[in-house]
Every structure is written in structure tokens, then in C-alpha cells.
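Bumping with the actual sequence this time:
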Amino acid sequence: MNTTIAGAIDLAKGVRKGLGSLSGLGVILCPPFVSLAAVQQAVQGSLIKVGAQNMHSEASGAFTGEVSPLMLQGICDYVILGHSERRQLFGETDSLVNRKVKAAFQNRLRPILCVGETLEQREGGQAGSVVVEQLRVGLADVVAITGLVVAYEPVWAIGTGRAATPETAAEVMGSTVLDTLRSLFGDAADHVPLLYGGSVNPGNAAGFMAQDCIHGALVGGASLQAPQFVEIAQTTARAKGLG
């Protein structure tokens, strides 16, 4: 919940200018609902895509203040679902996230499904089981996962300045996340982009992107400064051998 509409436009333009001719890298900007249309216009004609930060699972109805998947059609391609702040602050459950994921697919939106454990769960040895449950329930009754993106965001590393080590992130993403997706969807799991989120910044991005099982980043605070976001994108492109 940052930026005004004018600020979001300036930020999007700054990212677009900073990326220049960089190609081959998927870049998605996810502004607040009120700025989606303006940001889409600001990046039109570039390779940058736009995503929403959340959505309701129903197409319409008496849900004052909510935004439905139908409302997002035509102004964004992606939608973040199950973000840790939605789970922690607004009580979103795995089953609710599942309804949103299915609604996204049904409405031709690409879900960025977020999973991750709290510090208490990690210290209690439950990190793996928590992530597995979030994936299994979050993707229940989903038949095809074309377009799915999964972001691993350990809750204890979000907004705390305490990022997970690249090795810790790779252990969860390369085994727990990928193995669970393979058990559910077979070889299709190997085509799902896996993002790491949790205090990613220009100083630590290279370490994360050096891991084969980490394909990109879900950037939080660093995305509010165009130069920082662009630097992370450039670091990712170099690490993955992209143009």
C-alpha cells in the first residue's frame, strides 16, 4: 500500500527507462488497484507486464470494497495471491487462496501463488510441512498449471531486513516446492517459474539468482525505488544469461 497514482506512474516510467533494451527477462509491476490502468498505460509498448496485488474469488456480488477477476481483465496479466501479509493481517486461509487461484485461471489471469513459513514454524521444524500444505490446498482441484508462478516468501524475512540465505531458500524451493509441484502435476512443474521473496535488494540479489532453482525475485521494499529495482533486474538477467 504505497504510492499515489502519480507516484506509481513515475515509478513505472523510471523502471521502463532504466531497463532500456534489456530483453529476455520477465518483469512484472504490481501496483495498488487504483494505479493499475495508469501503470499499464505507462509501460504499454514495452516488455513489462502488469499484475494486481490481490483479488476476490467471486466475479461479482455484495462484497463492498473488493475487486473481482472480471474487473482485472484487460488491465493486468498477473495477480499475486496468498501473500504473507494477506494471510497474516487479513486472515486469508489456504482454502480461500485456492478459490482465488481457481478464479484467476478461469478468468485468464496468471496467479503468482505465495507460500512461506513464519519464524515460529521454521524454528519448530515445520517449514517444509507448512509449505507443502499451502501448495497442496492452494492448488487443490487445479487441473492445468500453465501460467502459474510460485513465490517462496519466508514470513520471517519480509520487511525485516533479515533475508534467508540463498542456500536456505534454494533448499526449500529446489526440493520442497518443486517436489510438491511435481507430485501434483508431473513434468509440468518444471515449467513453473519459482521466485524468492523476502528482503531482496541489490546487495543480495546475486546470491539468490546464482541458485539454479531460483528463477527470479518477488521484490518488496526495493521495488519502491526504480534504480534499486532495475539493478535487481539487471543482476537477475546477468545471472541467468539473458540479454
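The C-alpha cells above came from a reply further down the thread. The longest strand covers residues 110-115.
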